Amino acid sequence: xxxxxxxxxxxxxxxxxxxxxxxxPEETEALGAALGKRLPPGTIxxxxxxxGAGKTAFTRGLARGLGCKDIxxxxxxxxxxxxLGGRLPLFHFDMYRLNSADDLWDIGWEDYLERGGVCAVxxxxxxxxxxEDAVTITLEKLGEDARRITIEGGDFLADLSL
Length: 162
Fold this sequence. Notes:
about 160 residues, eight-stranded mixed β-sheet, Rossmann fold, alpha/beta
């Protein structure tokens, strides 16, 4: 049976980069869920994209793909939300209010890395020095609901079939 929504690849796997076009929040979530099913422990996802680009929608799907049943919300005012009920823990960070990677280390970044979960980091450009080994996920708003989502890095991409 075909799912009711599915992200459309517009550029296939090339040099550890995949680009997808989604046309609704549900498709954005479905792409996140497909990725979440394949992520290994210790993965860092560095999100790039402006306000309203779909980062939280993507993370809702990511959590679902990891098996988390919790309601996923933006960590704007808390800096990090933890979701522990899935195959791997998910740590959803918002770095908008941080000034540097030093601030990230001060809030216990190393402790999160040692827990072997998935770290999804919004506004990762604010802490770029801590994102060296991250998979970069760029979300671009193309219209009201349309998004271009580019995933760069990570050996698991070769197996990302949607």
